[in-house]
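Hi,

Apologies if this is the wrong queue. I'm a grad student, and the batch job for tRNA N6-adenosine threonylcarbamoyltransferase from Kineothrix alysoides produced an output file that my downstream script rejects. I'm not sure whether the problem is my script or the file. Here is the sequence I used:
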Amino acid sequence: DRDVLILAIESSCDETAASVVKNGREVLSDVIYSQIALHTVYGGVVPEIASRKHIEKVNQVIEQALSEAGAELTNIDAIAVTYGPGLVGALLVGVSAAKAISFASGIPLIGVHHIEGHISANFIENKELEPPFICLVVSGGHSHLVVVKSYGEYEIIGRTRDDAAGEAFDKVARAIGLGYPGGPKIDKAAREGNPEAIRFPRAKVEGSEYDFSFSGLKSAVLNYLNSCEMKGEEINVSDVAASFQKAVIDVLVEHSLAAVKEYGYDKFAIAGGVASNSALRGALEKECAKRGVAFYSPSPIFCTDNAAMIGVAGYYDYIRGIRHGYDLNAVPNLKL
Ligand code: KG4
Ligand code: ZN
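Support response: The file is valid. Your script probably expects a header line. Output copied below for reference.
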């Protein structure tokens, strides 16, 4: 009956983040130090720089999360930390900080899967949402269609065979001169463009209804840019952005709806950085409404990397009795 407070830490890529979450659904603080500006000059995340910056920032971010929540360590029931997948050096910083605090204070330690965190972000603002539902997880490193059977119980029914959706956004953005991070920039440019201007391919994957492939689309965009250059034609950046984005969205929507139909669930959710894409959210919301399926999505700030989502996932692990020992390690390719 008493409140359960989770202190959560996330450092798998280029945000150093900490949060305090109450009873699994209430975010008392959500501190994110984004390193994006630091990596922009290199056109992408530089792992070594990310690790070093995490070390500099992690304690400060944790202290701020506790103080903004009005909490002290003595109020905390468990420390949840992302231990994979992600960049190994980056993950190690969060994992080491969590282990050190846990060891010094005796507060239980819980390792959380990053993707489980992304999915759990949906529970923050949708208090009524409970499994089972289907979730499309699209981020810089992952494109998964997941059946969320119950808390902590997942079945991946679709995955990418090559590039992740966010990776395709980032690579295409770089090619058309929009820079890093590509997703939000393509999202914005696409609003001024015509999605029907260029017909890019919608890839089907042999042998799987739900798997994704985005590298062919990326190559098609690069070929298109090359042929324009050869012919001396000017490129319309907004049209390329809109047409590329439409090709990604069409495939994501088609696979998602096929899964919703096959499994017969009346709830569908999205998660991950690409889930903050305005056109993707709009398309999925519309198609779900047509079918009488409830559509759930986290606010954009809970789509991209944050620690609140790790605190939510950590809470459901906590009440199921999951605890980790001090042998917890960073696992860069951790499976869901
Ligand atoms: O979940 P996330 O913050 O980190 C990973 O776990 O990978 O996702 C980052 C990815 C990047 O590829 C970024 O370009 C993409 O999400 N992204 C977007 C948008 N905002 C971020 N992609 C499309 N549209 C957006 N508005
Ligand atoms: Zn992520």
